Amino acid sequence: MKRIAVLTSGGDAPGMNAAINAVVNKADDLGIEVFGISRGYQGLINNEIYPLNTKKVQGICRKGGTVLETARSQEFRTKEGRKKAVEVLKSHKIEGLVVIGGNGSLNGAKVLSKMDSEIKVIGIPASIDNDISGSDFSIGFNTACDVVTKALDNIKDTALSFHTSNEARIFAVETMGRERGWISILAGIAGEADLVIVPEKRSSFAKVVNRIKEIIKAKNDCVILFSEGITNADNFVDQLEAKLGHRVRSTLLGFQQRGGVPTITDRILALRMGVKAVESLKAGESAKMIAIKGDSVKTELLENNDIGTGSYDYYLDMFKHKVMGL
Fold first, then answer.
1. Is 129 noted as a catalytic residue in this protein?
2. Catalytic residue from among 12, 129, 146, 221
3. What is the Rg, in whole angstroms, of the alpha carbon atoms belonging to the chain?
4. Domains of the chain
5. InterPro entries given for it (predicted)?
6. How far apart are CA 319 and CA 294, in angstroms?
């Protein structure tokens, strides 16, 4: 294999740049030429391709986002768009492609790998949601959890410090994660939230309200962490205020969770995945995803990358008294 390309697609995630760095440096070690593709699959269709070398990716590991930029492409969803993407790769004599992204991006990689057997395709899971089946963790998840945990630390400080005699202090913090509660679970545990509410579990709203009443009766303050994917997340705080008869101070962390400097955990994870991706292409593998299994970096079939429910069993056994669902 003489030439490969790398792109980032879909939602950005902290650590994507470290994966790009690893792909370029490992390819250089193996004597493989690397091309970067701007703006994901849409950039590929538009022939936005340029040479990458070790000098161009020096110092990018510490940066959030992606230097290649990212986008979503409706055109790539069409047969004509995918055909054009293959033609562009072949026009540059690209033999292998590394796709860094979440579920949609990896599904695109799976489809692309079936278009032309001469072009090998390897995916790297990068999503703060950590919802990709086949891998224990995805790039960006640890950084997002770190952002939420630090926010909880700050909120807990004021929640514990200021007390009134006639009103409980209740804080509700919303996390990202789509339909999965991984960020809420791990950040909630690490940040000592009083109650964590995720979409995977099911409880009645009345039970949630009663649990909050028990908490504020015991200590006059309550910090709640809830996932954006729970039922009626947009009106959750309003509903709580109506039922509790207390003001609920709301915090929406939003896109802070997707930006910022990646943690060392995400950087090392991304570097390991990037190296393995190039090694897999060099070995002639295709239609596979780089996966973390325990302490090992392995390859999994892209067929297995559908949205995963995740397994909270280990954490629930330790902290099940803090976790509910809606």
1. yes
2. 129
3. 22
4. 3-140+262-304 (3.40.50.450), 145-258 (3.40.50.460)
5. ATP_PFK, ATP_PFK_prok-type, Phosphofructokinase_dom, PKF_sf
6. 22
